[in-house]
Design a protein that fits this description.
The protein is α/β, with parallel strands linked by helices. The chain folds into 2 domains: 119 residues, D-Maltodextrin-Binding Protein, domain 2, CATH 3.40.190; 82 residues, D-Maltodextrin-Binding Protein, domain 2. It is 32% helix and 28% strand. The strands form 2 sheets. Strands 2-3-1-4-11-5 form a 6-stranded mixed β-sheet. It has a 5-stranded mixed β-sheet with strand order 8-7-9-6-10. Strand 7, helix 4 and strand 8 form a beta-alpha-beta unit. The longest helix has 22 residues. The protein is elongated and about 60 Å long. The chain starts with 8 loop residues before the first strand and ends with a helix. Bound molecules: 1-O-pyrophosphono-5-O-phosphono-alpha-D-ribofuranose.
């Protein structure tokens, strides 16, 4: 099947942790995916039938591509969406990439006052403490945030906890859970209107497999 450019959908995928589960979900939904997507170093790949062009982006950049309409759809974590606050539609909870956004620190710091917090998620961290009426300084770190309380930079971190292994191996504990995170399907607002047929089709198929995997898992 050949597809003209106007009907081709561009989908931005998040590189990294959620990629394997994302591809498994797309395939289960019968959405065409290039065979070599995970092995390839290409950043733009077409599905074998030409109906979908995939762009492989850093997760934090996915909402930007979708808001500006260079991608019609995006697959990205709720953590990134909350932090980015981009103007787009969130269509579906894909039920993969499940983890928790938590306030963590040393066990003995549990009852201490929070003065400084390190995070990759400046907005989520600041909002959380503001909503609790606490004045804290939030310091941005790009990764390995768990280091901050260990070496005395901050009293707490706000970070994702998946298995809890990183915390445990570094002697840190969860002080508070802020929210549950999972991967979402998002759409550009204009594409959602102009390409509604294709987007509805993909959303329905993904909803179907997502609902099934929830049933099996529960
Ligand atoms: C994430 C997160 C934690 C870790 C949690 O980091 O920031 O550090 O995973 O996973 P766990 O509970 O299963 O141990 P990532 O590996 O994405 O790298 P980063 O520290 O550079 O952000």
């Amino acid at each position: 099947m050949t597809v003209n450019e106007n009907s081709q959908l561009t989908v931005a995928l998040s590189k990294g942790r959620i990629m394997t589960d994302t591809l498994r979900l797309l395939k289960a939904a019968g959405i065409p995916v290039p065979d070599d997507l995970e092995e390839s170093r290409k950043l733009i790949l077409e599905s074998p039938d030409g109906s979908i062009r995939y762009i492989l982006a850093k997760p934090v950049d996915v909402p930007t591509y979708v808001e500006y309409g260079v991608a019609d759809l995006g697959i990205v974590g709720k953590d990134v969406l909350l932090e980015a606050e981009r103007d787009l539609y969130e269509l579906l909870d894909l039920g993969i990439g499940r983890c928790r956004m938590c306030v963590c620190g040393l066990p003995e710091a549990h009852h201490g006052t929070v003065k400084r917090v390190a995070s990759k998620y400046m907005r989520i961290a600041a909002d959380h403490f503001r909503n609790q009426g606490q004045q804290v300084e939030v310091i941005f770190l790009n990764g390995s945030v768990e280091l901050a309380p260990l070496i005395g930079l901050t009293d707490r971190i706000v970070d994702l906890v998946e298995t809890g292994r990183t915390l445990a191996e570094n002697g840190l504990v969860i002080h508070e859970e802020i929210l549950q995170i999972s991967t979402r399907l998002v759409a550009n607002r204009m594409s959602f209107r102009l390409k509604s047929e294709q987007i509805d089709h993909i959303t329905a198929r993904l909803r179907d497999v997502t609902a099934k995997s929830f049933t099996v898992g529960e």
